[in-house]
What we know:
Elements: E1 8-11, H1 17-28, E2 32-36, H2 50-61, E3 65-69, H3 76-90, E4 95-98, H4 113-141, E5 146-151, H5 154-158, H6 164-184, E6 189-197, H7 208-213, H8 229-236, E7 247-251, E8 254-257, H9 275-290
Helix pairs in contact: 1-2, 1-8, 3-4, 4-6
This protein binds nicotinamide-adenine-dinucleotide.
Amino acid sequence: MGKLEGRVAIVTGAGRGIGASVAKMMAAEGAKVVVNDLGVDVDGSGGTSGPADEVVEEIRSAGGEAIANGASVADHEAAEALIGTAIETYGKLDVLVNVAGILRDRMVFNLAEEDWDAVINVHLKGTYNTSKFAAIYWRQAREGNYRLINFTSGSGLHGAPGQPNYAAAKMGIVGFTYSCANALGRYGVTSNAISPGAATRMTGTIPQERAAGLGVNQQADEMSPDNVAPSVLYLASEQSGWLNGRVIGAMGYRISLYNNPEPIREILSTGPWDLDTAFEQIERSFKPAILGLAGFGAAPAEKKE
Ligand SMILES: NC(=O)c1ccc[n+]([C@@H]2O[C@H](COP(=O)([O-])OP(=O)(O)OC[C@H]3O[C@@H](n4cnc5c(N)ncnc54)[C@H](O)[C@@H]3O)[C@@H](O)[C@H]2O)c1
């Protein structure tokens, strides 16, 4: 028996990279998989059915079940049709994995409005689009053991300086995942996010030095996207019902559990804050808590002569 025997899954962005690894491993473990991919370049331009068709071909020739779907997750109506495809073809939907993504990297002061919109539309709106229609189905079907698995990134969790659009979208996906975890648990749905690291064409666009700093070595076998897939399969399985509203890191041979944000220090006033007291207490209480933690360097700007 495969670990996902009888499960029906949609994997978006499954024509390449991490999504393709996830779709193939799921099918090998007995899931019926809708392989969604728009077949675009890393920046979201172009579009071809080739990558999704190839993954479906590979799954079928290995004896698995899959169909291709070419919807853009950024398109609200196409996302609805994508959910419908799984239900019409395989009779139900158990697992939605939102992997599809693009990059348009710029420093914030150089970031064009269209590059902000494009990245937010595919990652954040795309995750909402598919999840919304899956949630409508799950709320009505109520059979339980449903799984929503979203993709965040270290870029959002740690704030990559050259990716303000992508970091915002990926952190937005974490907030969306927490909200779904709180809202959909009663319908038997768990919602979690994966923060992956793998050598794909996406990380291939990062300058080698910075990629090394992020722990992504494009050459290392360990960085195969196949090493991200096992964490996704666990979340997709019926065994993971105890795990809800969490971020799981999956890179190379390491799988990690992130903490969820919570206050680490608090100062209180008995009435409206006196400004001098607030200034003094913020520094006295918060500064020592931050020193020694990983953080964001902020140096005073160099003054022009
Ligand atoms: N590779 C990493 O180290 C890494 C790190 C952090 C986060 N991620 C995230 O993991 C996910 C997969 O990344 P990857 O490295 O495999 O990238 P990839 O570029 O290899 O694959 C992404 C796939 O998404 C598809 N896609 C893009 N826009 C789409 C749309 N509108 N509708 C449907 N499909 C669309 C592309 O055609 C492509 O096949 C992304 O969400 C990415 O942001 C990856």
